[in-house]
Prior knowledge:
Strand content: 15-25%
Structural class: alpha/beta
Number of helices: 6
Strand order of the largest sheet: 3-2-1-4-5-6-7
Low-confidence stretches: none
Radius of gyration: 16 Å
Distance between the termini: 22 Å
Helix content: 25-40%
Shape: globular
Largest sheet: 7 strands, mixed
CATH architecture of the largest domain: 3-Layer(aba) Sandwich
CATH class of the largest domain: Alpha Beta
CATH superfamily of the largest domain: Formyl transferase, N-terminal domain
Bound molecules: glycinamide ribonucleotide
Amino acid sequence: MSRRIAVLVSGGGTNLQALIDAQARGGLGGGTIAAVISSKEGAYALERAARAGIPAYVMPRGDFPDSRAMTVALRDKLRALDIDLVVLAGFMHILTEELIAAYPNAILNVHPALIPAFCGAGYYGLKVHEAALAYGVKLTGATVHFVSAEPDGGPVILQRAVEIRAGDTPEALQRRVMEEAEWQILPRAVALFCQGRLAVEGRTVHILGGTP
Length: 212
Ligand code: GAR
């Protein structure tokens, strides 16, 4: 049974592109990107969806009084589209428990750091890389995890480390973390989910059949 995937975006959509490219080469474990939902009108991610022929929808945060109302509307949309897996790919809003209850262990997020470092409320986009450089760590990377009620706090699925180089700017580091880590591990985690190979036990995610 092919899983129907919705990708939620807010910006450029390079992670969405990595998923589109993976699907084109049969690399999503049989899953199909059935919808892209953007929280921002005019986000370049919408362009990418259009080029790939994927139905796209816009649900601006400003249309809703609070994040609960936005989450409920999103949940209803995802149900109406018969979605099995929700992927947050640069989605810049914290969702409330209504969505997590509707999709238990079926929402993935990609975060541009090695969780539990540089994560949680306030750590998103470039700010994460600014924080890693300000702290002076030598290694950073990316994490794909299941979404729980705690921001960036759900069980970790895959991580990949990236070295920090002398002279790195936040922008240079962001680009390298995307290329070397995010665009690799996000499609891989989606494929593992679609193949039914992720088993959650407490905080631990077991990868059935071995780590890819
Ligand atoms: C990515 O680096 C993603 O990990 C990050 O925003 C960027 C979106 O880029 N997400 C977060 O910080 C969420 N906490 P993209 O739109 O090109 O995929």
